[in-house]
Amino acid sequence: MDYSIGKIIRKIRKEKNLTQEELAEQLYVTSQAVSKWENETGLPDITQIVPLCRVLGISADELFGIFGTNADEEVEKFIKESEDYIGSTELYDEEEYDIVYKRCLEQLKLYPNNIKLLVYTLGSACSYAFKCRKNGKTEEAQEAFNEAKREAKLIIQYGKSIHDIMTAHMWLVKLYCRFGMLEEAKKEAEYFPKSSDYTEGSQLAWIYCYENNNDGEIKARCNNFSNILTSLEHELIMLGNAYKRKGMYKEALITYEAFIKTVKAVYGEEEYTPPLHTWQWIYMHIAHCYLELGNTEKAIDSLYDEYDGLIIEAKHYNTKNKLDNIPALKECEFKFCSTQMHIKEPLISSLNKKWFDPIRNHPRFIALLEKVNALEG
Q1: What Å distances lie between residue 35 and 19, 47, 192, 300, CA to CA?
Q2: 207 confidence band (pLDDT: 50, 70, 90)
């Protein structure tokens, strides 16, 4: 569908067998004005929109490219198309972030007050801002920063869903942190609850319980547990990273291994754990800790564990969305934001970290690097 006003005017005019002169005559404008509209070198004045729509026999929505569907349907379609595009790329370079972000801005011109689109664009704007800042593109980063702030403020002011509003606050925390505005980030953090049990799932579960709807309660509690599990795992990893940055490698190692024990306690013998519950590259951090603690063999064992785990995950990726044998998660459906899992280049990049310089000439490390290089892209 082409959303260009000029092309829509030309299309409808020709369908009605009108020349540019005839259309101009009915609107009390010159044929040159109509020509400019259709060639996209000018736009109708706002006072001409209603008469133009009446002459062409279309609504203002149709003139602006919104044909026969409501905004939510169009936004859902756009988001799905964007996610399909993201899933078809590795998103390793700035160009792809730029493409998605600019597509979002174009869509916002059509639906400027659609909260779902604002939330989606906010995430895209922040990601683009982070990428530009990292690559030293200060002007582009600042423009994206300003756009992200604008979208977040609109969501917070006009959003009706607590989830959307808190998502906006979350992105603002990340945005301010990345741009060194830490006091502003702390103010945004104050909006968040101190307890983790204020969730939609926990409240729905109580309702289903009082309805004696066992199936509904089980599904709600499974999904709620899935979200809590993701948060727990995330906090364990981030805590481990904080210990590691401080040079407390023993504490970091214990914390990382608590994450692994949590995963094993939930999934048991299940070979595959969904990406939602797997913090990729965890064994890389464990290997680093073992090296700092002087245990070379354990470090290399961890690197092999990372390789084996990612191979398993890539094998099942996007092919399995339910775990029927895990009671705590059997009612959950796991969604994927991409169609494939890329592991070769990220693995090579991780193995090239300076952390592993002390073992770079170790025969087992060389053998592992050869295995990684032999992987298909």
Answers
A1: 10, 18, 54, 70
A2: very high
